[in-house]
Amino acid sequence: MPTFPDQFLWGAATAGHQIEGNNLNSDIWAMEHVESAPFVEPSGDACDSYHHYEDDIRLLAESGLDTYRFSIEWSRIEPEPGQFSRAELEHYRRVILECRARSITPVVTLNHFTVPAWFARDGAWAQPEAADLFVRYVRYVVEEFQQLVDWWITFNEPNAGALLLATGSLPLGAAADDLAAAQAALMAEFAARVGGTPGIAAMAIPVLAPQAVENVFTAHRNARAAIKSIASNARVGWSIAVHDFQAEPGGEARRDDILGQAIHPYWAAAREDDFLGVQTYTREVYGPEGRIHTPEDDDTFLTGWEYYPAALGHTVAQAFAYTGVPVLITENGIATADDDARIRYTRAALEGLAETIEAGAEVLGYIHWTLIDNWEWHSGFAMTFGLIAFDHATFERSPKPSLGWLGDVARSNGASLQVDTQLVLAARES
Ligand code: GCO
Asked: At what angle are helices 49-63 and 86-101 packed, to 10 degrees?
């Protein structure tokens, strides 16, 4: 019987730029509109959650989930350097108050990849003032919301660039040798659009500039200190992307190299945090010749990732063993058009997680990616990770069976995982 601790958080996650729509002042918006944009389609209205957040939170709450992870868009709060928008701050206050009115715990991400276009123009994370500029924005937000929010995530996947580089899954489909050239061409187009010196969209920066990586670590540490000085009860962490890296004989060195470059430094920095955010979807297996690709099958993700739900329990065990810091699962899920597959995947992931908890790992909660189908960065809208679908013309929301299923798991604190999936689905239909 799977058991989860008392007070375990059960939730779903989103990110501002992926759901709000019309984040006109962000670097990624600008990047979406350069000629050789590395995105299949622009974010546009996204799910218009900027106007439909009440529906999103109501559906989440009605399902039985109790936690909502979402992000605040820095580019809305500070559209020009030092110019803060009171009106946008009040928007996010309404989102937070809506959560609280429905007894939903808000978990707020302060940076989910996007930054203001001006910050990118001035050099993004590579500029010497990067950490100070981030902390100034963080203070502005936390001073206002300190009594309304206890859980803060400074950065979402600050290791995303390092992970792409270490695993060889480089952006733009570029090979290592011509990455610099491809990036330079894109940067020139980007600079022509946002002006100033050719900075670059922040998502890509850690791949390019070691100084940027350093600055992001500093920004995390200083933001954590700032948040704690404002709100002593605040719980602060960052969310690190990790695959379940496995090695066949002869692949150990390659695997350890990836962990050493893209995972362990970020986990180590979390040792001073209140929690470590773990974001896991799949595994990657390495052999003596490099990555071993698993055969495609019916269960494969739309994203092309291997269907491997055991990755969650494995990576949580590794993260806890490495850091000793309580883990908050801030993302786990599957891009699929088959909602039964989403339920199967999530059930199996949670069963693996329960085993990891029984073996002694301290885990604070499970936050599924994602509440609603949304704009999946480079892949556009086709990658449906959501527990809720939406109509792209009317923005009307339609919960999928997986939302109710996960809500039942939440209400029973995991006990309903005992019940066979098919029985649950049949009961819902009758
Ligand atoms: C990331 C982000 C999310 C993604 C999700 C699915 O991991 O890239 O945190 O924004 O949408 O992980 O790829």
From this structure: 20
> What's the rounded Cα separation, in Å, for the pair 151 and 238?
11
Question: Cα of 171 to ligand 1 centre, how many Å?
Answer: 14
CATH number 3.20.20.80 is the correct assignment for the domain at 9-429: yes
Buried b (16+ CB within 10 A) or exposed e, 24-47: ebbbbbbbbebeebbbeeebebbb
Quote the distance between the C-alpha of residue 295 and its chain's center. 27
d(CA 410, CA 422): 18
Q: Output the pLDDT for position 278.
A: 99
Whether this model's pTM surpasses 0.85: yes
CA distance 93 to 364: 25
Which of helix, strand or coil describes residue 229?
helix
Strands, E, within 216-362: which ranges?
235-241, 244-247, 275-279, 283-287, 290-292, 327-331
The pick from 153, 157, 378, 383 for probing ligand 1's pocket by mutation, whose C-beta has the most ligand atoms within 8 angstroms, reads 157
Q: Whose CA is nearest to atom 1 of ligand 1?
A: 157
Span of 75-84, 102-111, 116-125 with lowest mean pLDDT: 116-125
Q: How far is the CA of 427 from the centre of ligand 1 (A)?
A: 32
Ligand 1 contact, 373 CB (< 6 A): no
Summarize pLDDT for 241-261 with one digit per residue, the tens.
999 999 999 999 999 999 999
DSSP secondary structure letter of residue 296:
P
Angle subtended by helix axes 86-101 and 130-145, to nearest 10: 50
- pLDDT at residue 1, as a whole number: 67
How many residues would you count in the chain? Answer: 430
Partnered with residue 363 across adjacent β-strands are 327
Distances (CA, A) of 103 to 302, 329, 339: 34, 20, 27
What value does the mean pLDDT of the chain take? 92
Strand-pairing partners, residue 155, are: 111
Q: Are 305 and 311 in contact (CB under 8 A)?
A: no
| Of residues 334, 331, 358, the one with CA closest to residue 346 | 334
Atom 10 of ligand 1: nearest residue by CA position? 15
pLDDT of residue 170: 64
> What are 339-383's pLDDT values in tens digits?
999 999 999 999 999 999 999 999 999 999 999 999 999 999 999
Tokens for 3? 């058991």
Q: Please give the structure tokens belonging to residue 228.
A: 């704690």
